[in-house]
């Protein structure tokens, strides 16, 4: 896919690197000549010097052929303009970085398909680190109605050697929670488990649950550490 990124700050640069690794063709637009030079020489993407909300620059950068535009500019007002122009040029996927929550509705009205609140992400990560230090990572979906947790299985845990089906039937395991991913060790790929999958010492699971069940799930895992 041809992906056009507006803004080559820290977020834009890291996105470009990862998208390239995934096999996408990446172009970037930035007003800073040094950022454009870095993008070309160090990251290996096409970089166009100029404003990402200038129609001439966008057309030169190939916005008409873009499968996705990522608005990662420093100011929400500029990102809103980029979203509007991307919609005008028929870009099917428009992802925007939002700093101020007041822009959420304007972004939606302008045509953004995905709105990523950097402030909300940071706050959630800090709060989760304090509230749930046992969790390796946690992601929120559907406005916080669903949580996906990454949990490491501690040594000598009582669920080691048990199947996913057996764990699901344990009365201590929170009802409505599902184990949706399993990684035996850091050198193996994450896989989707079935009922017969046996959990090993030192492995990692991904579990999906409701926010009100997170503590119960952690307590269930905590029973294994006693």
TrEMBL record:
Tell me which UniProt keywords the record has, alphabetically: Ion transport, Transport
Q: Which InterPro entries match?
A: NAD(P)-bd_dom_sf, RCK_C, RCK_C_sf, RCK_N, Trk_Ktr_HKT_K-transport
Question: Which ranges carry the RCK N-terminal domain?
Answer: 1-116
- The organism's superkingdom is given as Bacteria
| Regions annotated as coiled coil | none
Please report the stretch or stretches of sequence annotated as the RCK C-terminal domain.
136-223
Pfam families documented for this protein? TrkA_C, TrkA_N
What name does UniProt use for this protein?
TrkA family potassium uptake protein
The species is Synechocystis salina LEGE 00031
